[in-house]
């Protein structure tokens, strides 16, 4: 299976696997309908050797910020040479562009709406505006480009068709500013990025944003405490803050749900405040 | 991967892929339990080359109408030669037949309860009543024929075993009338077929049911408006009706949920009314 | 595909399939996040031939008992030689061991917390304490060992690396007593093991626990009735008890939800009582 290499601490393979290309799906389509199934059906019809992996389909509907956070923090765990098909597409059927981005290690396919704006210029090899209808379904709907454009392009790309076959090269993608940490009178103010299945609250702080390891962390007015190693660092039922396994400051409750404990629901605009000691 | 052909506007492949047969699963089993996993385990044990794709497992429990709508509107997006395993089976353990239907382009396996009654006689090559216990699990339960009968039959079929090995040919399957559009004094009356993940409401109207493109659409007593191109055709937060990407009249709210906007819950019997202009 | 064999009534294959090893995932991670996707990405990066099957990811968070019940009653339906990766891991980051268990027919990978305590000593060939960091990700987090340890070990194992490469052999795994049937003055008392997607209530009784086939079954104070064949044995809307397709006494409502009918929610401690006739 080739020599193992390490990329940012993650095991990856050096070469694109033409025998079994991997296509990773990230969408806000959910699993209630057949939308995801049909995308896989289209790809399987074009390339039966493609391996399809669901990253998640539970991005909150139309939430580009959440989609960008999800792709940004997960894409490197997939084999180098993989194709990331990511669709959170509130502007489907309007004039927003359809993209294929080739980077040093991956391909990204999806709408040009900020979903991929975490990619650094230095990483990007080329950006293609998807235009060549030879690689789309015959009829293009106004509401389901994941099926009509993105899935067939991913299927053809996985067969080894060159990126520049799919349309003209362009120089820029839409950029959206990521959540920033703001300075306040008494310390720092950050945001909630994600609430996970366990009710853990992921914040916009990374380790290098923290003033020091003894700073005090608040969720709105409520004290969480100082930075710990893991949720087992506190007693059961107590809140705890630590750097999660993706490098972000996360708030949990040992054996419970921080979202319940702090009454945080998806979409909450509560601030995460840090007071320097 | 063979020559591409177009079937009803969908890209498909001309030949059955014996190297990697595709089996598509549509059930009301949900993903809370291991029911779907076990079905895949049985198939993988019989044919490790089979590619398994989840169409959806979120058909409302025991709802044959919803299952039929789901299979009917999605099956053509999968590669020709694929096997559709569809199980919504409230009559499991009673005398309802177990079916294998071969059509010009696909195979369908599941209970004989109306799930497949959308298939036209002209499409069907043969209908097999599954009887040959050599291709079932050794012990047949009274409550889980998807595991004991349908999954092993799909696995053996994918290995190339001929359909008529599985049981005697029969001439008919159970037919259930699809939702019809009814004429009323003031126009037309149709039904809700499905509410999707986004809260979009799929109705039983197709384009050829609509009197003209300027007709006025109501959900019960509430006005939706005239037919538009896509949800982006109206302002954010407003309701909109358009022909969806599967050919059905759909009601949405731009950037929101039509189910919430119109207070429609799964199983709602509200009528979709169309007044001619 | 080799000769078919029968193991406890289940079709299995005699030999490990090195061409396409199967890895089965059972977790409490849910599908809301990318946790499961990333595990698959790690495995696919190590062995692109591995076939990945989701058993379920909807074990109630941190519920080891439910995880053990799930793995115990499902693992035999997967091909012999498969690798079961099972992670319900409230003690992640503490001193609990990480295990690879080889049995006569399967491999099991996961935390040493009782999840695998259903395995009989006579079945087990060897137990490995996972220690060899050559087969882990380079950086080990304190909160996501499924990604950092269990997934890469499963990937390497599926490539044919010998179990004893992963760490020293140990003699015991953590044992947790399974739910028992207790004798009471008036009969027997058992527990609720699981509530499924349909609202069916799985109990801790198996057929050999029942005093006779005419015993009377109660859920708390409420009468369910005598043992029947299947849910179709009673009228629609009525409760019914039968031996389910996994060998356990199950309580259902024909065409409905027993959990709703009896007001049982996940985690309910209601007893299932059996009065001898």
Ordered list of secondary-structure elements with their pairings:
The structure is a homotrimer of 277-residue chains.
Chain A: E1 4-7, E2 10-13, E3 22-27, H1 35-46, E4 51-56, H2 64-74, E5 83-87, E6 98-103, E7 107-111, E8 124-129, H3 145-158, E9 169-170, E10 182-183, E11 187-190, E12 192-195, E13 201-206, E14 216-219, E15 222-228, E16 239-243, E17 248-253, H4 258-261, E18 272-275
Parallel strand pairs in A: 3-4, 3-5, 5-7, 15-16
Antiparallel strand pairs in A: 1-2, 6-7, 6-8, 8-9, 10-11, 11-18, 12-13, 13-17, 14-15, 14-18, 16-17
Can you tell me about this structure?
The structure is a homotrimer of 277-residue chains. With 277 residues, the first copy, chain A, is an alpha+beta fold. Chain A has 2 domains: 4-170, Rossmann fold; 182-275, Bacterial fluorinating enzyme like (Elongation Factor Tu (Ef-tu), domain 3), CATH 2.40.30.90. Chain A contains 4 helices and 18 strands. Chain A has helices at 35-46, 64-74, 145-158, 258-261; strands at residues 4-7, 10-13, 22-27, 51-56, 83-87, 98-103, 107-111, 124-129, 169-170, 182-183, 187-190, 192-195, 201-206, 216-219, 222-228, 239-243, 248-253, 272-275. In chain A, the strands form 3 sheets. In chain A, strands 10-11-18-14-15-16-17-13-12 form a 9-stranded mixed beta sheet. The first copy, chain A, has a 7-stranded mixed beta sheet with strand order 4-3-5-7-6-8-9, sandwiched between helices. A two-stranded antiparallel ribbon of chain A has the order 1-2. In chain A, strand 10 (182-183) and strand 11 form a beta hairpin. The longest helix of chain A has 14 residues, at 145-158. Chains A and B meet through helix 1 and helix 3 of A and strand 2, strand 3, strand 4 and helix 2 of B.
